[in-house]
Amino acid sequence: MLRITSFSELTQHLQKISARKRLVVVNPSDSHTFGAILQAVDAGLVSAQLLGDPDDFDMQLINTHEQLQLIECKDVYEASERAVEMVKNGDGDILMKGLVNTDVLLKAILNKEKGIVPYGQVVTFIAAMEIPSYNKLIFMSDPAVIPAPNLRQRTAMIDYAIAMTRNFGITHPKIALLHGTEKMNPKLNFMDDYKQIMDEVKQGKFGDAIIDGPLDIFLALNPAFGAVKNVESPIHGDADVVIFPGFEAANVFYKTVITFANARVGGILFGTDKPVVMTSRSDSADSKFNSIALACLGFD
Amino acid sequence: MLRITSFSELTQHLQKISARKRLVVVNPSDSHTFGAILQAVDAGLVSAQLLGDPDDFDMQLINTHEQLQLIECKDVYEASERAVEMVKNGDGDILMKGLVNTDVLLKAILNKEKGIVPYGQVVTFIAAMEIPSYNKLIFMSDPAVIPAPNLRQRTAMIDYAIAMTRNFGITHPKIALLHGTEKMNPKLNFMDDYKQIMDEVKQGKFGDAIIDGPLDIFLALNPAFGAVKNVESPIHGDADVVIFPGFEAANVFYKTVITFANARVGGILFGTDKPVVMTSRSDSADSKFNSIALACLGFD
Questions:
Q1: Is the dihedral of CA A216, A278, A98, A285 positive or negative?
Q2: How do the residues of chain A divide into helix, strand and coil, expressed in percent and rounded to 5?
Q3: Are residues B122 and B112 in the same domain?
Q4: Are residues A251 and A125 in the same domain?
Q5: Which terminus of chain A, N or C, has fewer Cβ atoms within 10 Å?
Q6: Does residue B293 lie in a domain region?
Q7: B297 lies in a domain?
Q8: B131 CB near a chain A CB, below 8 Å?
Q9: B172 with B227, same domain?
Q10: Separation of alpha carbons A135 and A72, rounded Å
């Protein structure tokens, strides 16, 4: 049975499936993005159409590479709109951000007529993290897109995470709703959401997922420290997914495990018609490659 | 010149000073707290008065140990009140929490007449963290006490952190105001505070401290990743102090570096008349010992 617990297993799995996806990239003129694309092309995961100014690229390399093609665009606005159009029309499977402001690409993605977000759909970012001292991948949301999620957005994050973990062969994902302690605190806005979600968990709304919260980082991800607390939880410091109260805490987690725990990361947008690799300037080439791999696995 | 960059250097420094402080502890009947106290006593840092029920302790050990004394109390309420009273009266230098609910001890500490918090004083928690891959201690606030700090509380955190780092020989502490990005976002409550603080920084209000924000974890603590971002900041990924937007993000940082980065930690309350070691159940004996050491260094 399929069970993917690391990024290298993910790449191996995709190579075994051997279905090259068509990647459409807005201005990958920085070395990290271009390097990640080359790596994904050479690993057999994707072919790539690059939208940008030929002057910004090594055209000799691109022209001699069967799986690479450059589509000339005069600026990042045109490149963003065209890339979204290509993915929307079925001329591409995955949209990827290169050297372009997030706002510019997001505007094209979210455009009511020409964009790729169904009306009313929640768009959020799910990251996967491989931390050497943890026994499997950790999925998390949302360190990037939604500053202060509401109930509908939190529920969408959980639904998306369940879909994503299913593709990794996790049939009963353990999902922790994060907070500084395991105690409900009615003074905090997001506690109402947690309470509502836990009520729905009891009603079986989330199927085979094992959801509990609020839990702190120890109870969610640290079996040794969590045990000291003597809190009854089905998570047992062994979560597959952590849903954070908001952007600030999620962003701190994401960047802290990269900085201090040698984490390998990747992430994609959910809620769009097709997977979107929405990287940031400070992402390494490795993290951009991992994000492409996550997008290749896709979502259902 | 004095410069303390790790917990072991802190202990060595305190042993060199050789001024045993009088520790007053509310119900240290759990093994982590008791172990940490014994270690601090044996290292020559403190003598300890333990307030609790004799039945919960190894009285033979206590009776034969010159620097240990048990004061019988019928419950944690009495122990909390008495411990605060002793410290207030000058019969103790440091107050420490053992196996007692935080609320119970805090109530005694904050009591208007009998407590040890001057009227109107901000009480907050400052932690010190030793992360193997970072070249010095990181001080942070506030992972424990204030859920959503206001401007006055944030300013107090900075003032306290400056006082604390001075005791570690840091004359120009680099202090980062944390956020998910380096961009001001007027939609977020705490941004007004950051803006105000940065205005005061320009006016020289914080003396020799080097303060910048908003900055993300990379720009604050990760020189390699921070450099990619091309952001001008005097912090250069080399912060001594990180001030978090709120409790959730701070708590995630604190518990994540313990879980995934082998961090050694310690922390004390600031704003009280005397240092208070306010540990939690899941703190290790090492972290409780470090907290005692921090309290011995004290604050001015």
A1: positive
A2: 40, 20, 40
A3: no
A4: yes
A5: N
A6: no
A7: no
A8: yes
A9: yes
A10: 44
**Does the distance separating the beta carbons of A261 and B256 come in below 8 Å?**
yes
Q: Please indicate, yes or no, if residue B290 is contained in any of the structural domains.
A: no
**Is the same domain home to B144 and B59?**
no
Give the number of C-alpha atoms closer than 13 A to the C-alpha of residue A218, restricted to the C-beta side.
20
The pLDDT tens digits of the residues spanning B61-85 come to: 999 999 999 999 999 999 999 999 9
List, for chain B, all residue ranges whose pLDDT scores fall below the cut of 50. Answer: none
CB contact under 8 A, A281 and B228: yes
Instruction: For residue A264, give how far its alpha carbon lies from the nearest alpha carbon of chain B (Å).
Output: 13
Position A121 confidence tier, pLDDT thresholds 50, 70, 90:
very high
Q: How far apart are CA B45 and CA A264, in angstroms?
A: 42
- What letter represents residue A4's amino acid? I
Domain end among B99, B117, B135: B117
The number of domains in chain B is: 2
- Report pTM: 0.95
pLDDT, residue A254, reads 97
- The interface predicted TM-score (ipTM) is 0.94
Q: What is the CATH number of the domain that holds A87?
A: 3.40.50.10950
Asked if residue B266 and residue B188 are part of one domain, the reply reads yes
* Among B134, B82, B147, CA closest to B109: B82
Pairing of strands A241-243, B21-26: unpaired
Residue B1: its pLDDT value, please?
73
Coil, strand, or helix at residue A76?
Answer: helix
Q: Does residue B234 fall inside a structural domain?
A: yes
A145 and A202, same structural domain? yes
pLDDT confidence of residue A232: 87
A180–B251: do the CB atoms touch at under 8 Å? Answer: yes
Same domain, A248 and A279: no
Whichever domain contains B99, its CATH number is 3.40.718.10
Residue B267 sits in the same domain as residue B135: yes
Bridge partners for A242 per DSSP: A140, A176
Host domain of residue B48: 1-117
Written as one letter, the residue type at A104 is: V
Name the nearest CA neighbour of A170 among A218, A224, A219, A128: A128
Buried b (16+ CB within 10 A) or exposed e, A184-219: eeeebebbebbbebbeebeeeebeebbbbbbbbbbb
Q: Does B135 reach chain A within 8 Å, measured CB to CB?
A: no
**Does residue A38 belong to the interface with chain B, where contact is any CB pair within 8 Å?**
no
At B283 the pLDDT is 87
Q: How far is B80 from chain A (nearest CA, A)?
A: 22
Give me the phi and psi of B193, to 5 degrees please.
-65, -45
Specify the amino acid at residue B181: T
